[in-house]
Amino acid sequence: MQRFILSILALCALVLTVSMATAATEAPAELKLEAPAGIKATKNPVTFPHAKHDAAGVECATCHHTWDSKSDVQSCSTAGCHDQPGKKGETAYYSAFHAKNADNSCLGCHKIMKKEGKVVPVSCKDCHPK
C-alpha cells in the first residue's frame, strides 16, 4: 500500500513539473516600447498594456510571429527581427508597430478593430503621449 501511495505522489510530482514547464509564458502587465539603440525615435515611447491585450484574447504569436512557444519571447528590436532604421520594409522597427496593412502590427490590427466598431487607439497621440 505504501508503495502505491509513493507511486501516486511521484506521478503527481511529475505531472506538476511538466505542467509548470509547459505553462504559458508570463508576460509583464505593462511595458515601455522604445526604439532600440541606433534608431532615432521621432515620438515619445509607448506604454504598452500587455495585460489588456492578453485579456482581449490576443495570442502571443500574433505579435511575436517568430516565437516557437518553447524558447524565451524576444522583443521586436532583437537582432534580425525589427532592428533596422527607416519606415519601410519588414525588418524596420517602425513597421512592426505601424504597418497599416499588416494584422500583426499595432496600427494594422487597431484599424481592423476600428472598422468592426471597437474603440481602440489609432492616432499618434493616442499611443505617443507628449
TrEMBL record:
InterPro entries: Cyt_c_III, Cyt_c_III_dom, Multihaem_cyt_sf. Residues 30-128 form the Class III cytochrome C domain. SUPFAM superfamilies: Multiheme cytochromes. Residues 1-23 form the signal peptide. Keywords: Electron transport, Heme, Iron, Metal-binding, Signal, Transport. It comes from the Bacteria. It holds the Pfam family Cytochrom_CIII. This is Class III cytochrome C domain-containing protein. It comes from Pseudodesulfovibrio portus.
